[in-house]
Amino acid sequence: EDKVVQSPLSLVVHEGDTVTLNCSYEVTNFRSLLWYKQEKKAPTFLFMLTSSGIEKKSGRLSSILDKKELFSILNITATQTGDSAVYLCAVSRVGSGNTGKLIFGQGTTLQVKP
Amino acid sequence: EAQVTQNPRYLITVTGKKLTVTCSQNMNHEYMSWYRQDPGLGLRQIYYSMNVEVTDKGDVPEGYKVSRKEKRNFPLILESPSPNQTSLYFCASSLLVSGSGFSYNEQFFGPGTRLTVL
Q1: Which of A60, A65, B39, B84 is most enclosed, with most CB atoms within 10 A?
Q2: For residue range B94-112, what is the model confidence (pLDDT) as tens digits?
C-alpha cells in the first residue's frame, strides 16, 4: 500500500531557529513529491521535486529529494512566527489511471514562538 | 485571478438531509478532486475527475457522489449525511498532460468547507 510518512508530527521552536521537516514515502511508480504549507485555510504550494539531489529554494525555505532512500526534507532557516503552519508532504505517481492523485502524509505542525 | 472556489465555507446540518458543496475553477484544468481532512489522517481523496463526464472513486468514496457536467464545476453531493462525514473538505484542480500518462501535479486548492453533521 502506498504511504507517505512525515516526522516529526509537531514541533515548537523559537524565532531564528532552523528547522528540518522530514517526509519518507513508499509509493509505486513515483512521479514527484510536493510540499504544501497550510495555515488555517487551503494548502498553498511550496515546492515540487522530481529529481534527486537538486535543491529547490525559495527565500528561507529549501527542499531536496533523495529517490534512492525515498525521502525528502524541507528546511526553514531563521524561522519567523509567520512560518507557523502545518506542512504537508504529498507524492504523485506516473502511469495510467488516477495520475492526478496526491498521496498525503499526516502533516507536521510547526509552531514558532517569538 | 486564478482560483478554486467552494461554497458554502461552513455548514452545520443534520443527519440525512441531502446537501451539495459546490466547487468551481477558472483555470481550465482537466483534473479535479475532492479531499477530506481529518485530524491525524491527513488529506484523503474522496472522488476525482480526469475530465468532463469522467469521474472515479478515490480512497474514501462511501457516502459521497460527484458529477462533472462542465469542465469548471465539480460538485460534491452527500445524499444522506452522517456524523462520520463531519470534516474539512477541499476541492482541488490541476492540469493533466494527456497521452503519456504523466501529470503536472501542482494542485490548486479551494478555501475549504467545514461541514458538521449532527
Answers
A1: A65
A2: 887 554 444 555 788 999 9
As a whole number of angstroms, the distance between CA A86 and CA A109 comes to 4
Chain A residues interacting with chain B (CB cutoff of 8 angstroms): 4, 31-32, 34, 36, 41-45, 48, 88, 90, 92, 94-96, 98-102, 104-107
Q: Which of residues 45-74 of B touch A (CB under 8 A)?
A: 45, 48, 50, 56, 58
Report which DSSP code applies to A27: -
Which of B31-70 are b and which e, b meaning 16 or more Cβ less than 10 Å from the residue's Cβ?
bbbbbbbeeeebbbbbbbbbeeeebeebebbeebebbbee
DSSP code of residue A8: -
- Residue B87 pairs with which residues in a beta bridge? B115
Closest CA to A57 of A82, A75, A33, A78: A75
Q: Is the distance from CB of B23 to CB of B108 less than 8 angstroms?
A: no
Q: What is the pLDDT of residues B41-86, one digit of tens each?
A: 889 999 999 889 999 999 899 999 999 999 999 999 999 999 999 9
